[in-house]
């Protein structure tokens, strides 16, 4: 179990770090046409590389290893339901980051810096909420 919990924590750190980096990368691509500085590779941009080669695989590994810990632990407590609700919203935010990234690829002029800032705030709140829930393990009567 300790192997899966360790894998869970290491992969969620990669997932969270790359997710928090993405809005800044996406806003950077859009505000400055920095294609000149971007290494010519199959990903086309550093943001696309972070999204496809780091954030998404890390998300899948964090979710799979967390599920294995859940099954081995047979943890069916209210705090875990609260945590998984927040994790679901984190997965939705991950998808929205992908949509914003696709938006930059079509180089349309509609400014997205505001959406990137909003996404950053939502990501910090969700990650803070998840880590508080899993470390504090609030009892049923403490949850809203
Ligand atoms: C579907 C996704 C996930 C599942 C099924 C899951 C499940 C679990 C389970 C069962 C544990 C063991 C809890 C315990 O008994 O102490 C755990 C630990 C943990 N999880 Fe997750 N988790 C998921 C996603 C995440 C995410 C996205 C984060 C952070 C953003 C996270 C943060 C943590 C932390 C920090 C611990 C260690 C808690 C401790 O050592 O007490 N998990 N997870």
Task: Tell me what the structure shows.
The chain is mostly helical and 144 residues long. It has one domain. It is 76% helix and 0% strand. The protein has 4 helices and no strands. It has helices at residues 2-31, 46-73, 78-105, 113-136. It is elongated, with a radius of gyration of 17 Å. The model has no long low-confidence stretch (mean pLDDT 85). Bound molecules: protoporphyrin IX containing FE. Protoporphyrin IX containing FE binds at residues 8-9, 12, 16, 62-63, 66-67, 69-70, 73, 75, 84, 87, 90, 127, 130-131, 134-135.
SSE topology:
Layout: H1 2-31, H2 46-73, H3 78-105, H4 113-136
Helix pairs in contact: 1-2, 1-3, 1-4, 2-3, 3-4
Bound molecules: protoporphyrin IX containing FE.
What key phrases describe this protein's structure?
binds protoporphyrin IX containing FE; 76% helix; single chain; mainly alpha; 144 residues; 4 helices
What would you say about this model in short?
The chain has 144 residues and is mainly α. It contains four helices and no strands.
Average per-residue pLDDT, rounded, comes to: 85
Low-confidence stretches: none
Radius of gyration: 17 Å
Helix content: over 70%
Beta-strand percent range: under 5%
